[in-house]
Design goal:
Blueprint lengths: L1 H9 L27 H4 L3 E4 L5 E3 L14 H16 L3 H16 L2 E3 L3 E3 L18 H18 L2 H9 L14 E2 L7 E2 L11 H17 L6 H21 L27 H18 L2 H11 L4 H17 L4
Helix pairs in contact: 3-4, 3-5, 4-5, 5-6, 5-7, 7-8, 7-9, 9-10
Length: about 325
């Protein structure tokens, strides 16, 4: 925990590098400027397979450690390589396309649910033991596939990205990746479990993939899917604005709003996570023009003070102990 504290404190002044527009139809940089330095990109990234697809290590609370394909991380690394490519590194473009093809080769399909990707590693803190869907995975796949489509002109990438919209429209009870639709507070789940988990940054990242689709696929090209992506995005924005105050303690920010029986009532985010969500608020402000997002970014930036950090770590240690994550 002391090592985690040291690493987290180093993140205090490390602001999330964001792209604030203008956002045109050509999908250039992603909204966060991921760099392809392996370990600094994602601490769970471990190595590559023989095609250059990233492999993750398991979470700290998984008993049987192993390497596995983690769609969220794979998409993140693909976007980092995309940034290398648009800065002029030709080989990075080839690497990016191999990762895009991984999403093509590993998609699951059904008539009711369209296209989706599964993560085959347990998530014990949410009592998830079977391969699980994720709105975050869907979003990363859409962002990668649409860029591969624009780069290559190959319709297979566009078709798959379009089918990947469908799970957003369905509740987790029906095999989808959304919750709270019946309450008018739609939330997209990073971790699809038996109960809603409502991880804040996962919902926001999910919105980014939908926004990519709205940008890249105009109504003149595909009226129905553009309308679907726009509807899903607007539902997600509305749901976020109606519920975001639940994450704000007045002194810090909650990581999630989990309905699982026995889950701690207070699970504070880390410093690095706080900086990430502040950056996401800035991006959403530029996407939507809604000043509430800008106000939240300013409010939460003020929480990054010594008293707030000390109180967060006291509570975080209790939460991690209860979840068996220390």
């Amino acid at each position: 925990m002391a090592g985690k504290l040291r690493n987290d404190l180093r993140m205090l002044r490390k602001k999330t590098p964001v792209v604030t527009g203008p956002y045109g139809t050509d999908l250039k940089e992603y909204y966060i400027l991921f760099r392809s330095e392996f370990k600094s990109l994602n601490r769970l990234l471990h190595s590559f397979d023989d095609r250059g697809i990233p492999l993750n290590t398991t979470y700290i609370d998984v008993e049987n450690a192993s390497l596995h394909y983690y769609p969220i991380s794979i998409g993140q690394y693909a976007l980092a390589r995309w940034h290398d490519y648009i800065r002029g590194e030709a080989e990075a473009g080839e690497h990016f396309m191999r990762i895009a093809d991984w999403f093509v080769d590993n998609a699951n399909y059904s008539v009711e649910l369209g296209a989706y990707w599964l993560t085959d590693v347990p998530k014990p803190e949410y009592q998830v033991s079977k391969p699980w869907k994720s709105a975050f995975s869907q979003s990363r796949a859409i962002s990668v596939l649409l860029r591969a489509w624009q780069k290559s002109g190959d319709e297979k990438y566009f078709s798959l990205a379009s089918n990947a919209l469908i799970p957003f429209s369905k509740d987790i009870k029906d095999g989808g990746v959304s919750v709270d639709r019946e309450m008018g507070t739609v939330f997209y789940e990073e971790y699809v479990a038996q109960w809603p988990t409502r991880v804040l940054d996962g919902h926001i990242f999910s919105l980014f993939g939908l926004f990519d689709y709205i940008r890249a696929v105009p109504p003149a090209y595909d009226k129905d899917n553009n309308a679907l992506a726009l509807e899903l995005f607007e539902e997600g924005i509305s749901g976020l604005l109606k519920t975001i105050h639940w994450y704000d303690t007045g002194k810090w920010l909650r990581f999630n709003r989990c309905d699982m029986p026995g889950y701690p009532n207070e699970d504070p985010c880390t410093i690095g996570y706080m900086n990430l969500v502040i950056g996401q608020m800035e991006i959403l402000y530029h996407m939507t023009g809604k000043t509430d997002f800008k106000a939240f970014a300013q409010r939460w930036s003020a929480y990054l003070n010594p008293i707030g950090i000390i109180n967060m770590y006291r509570l975080k240690m209790k939460t991690l102990q209860k979840l068996n994550r220390l």
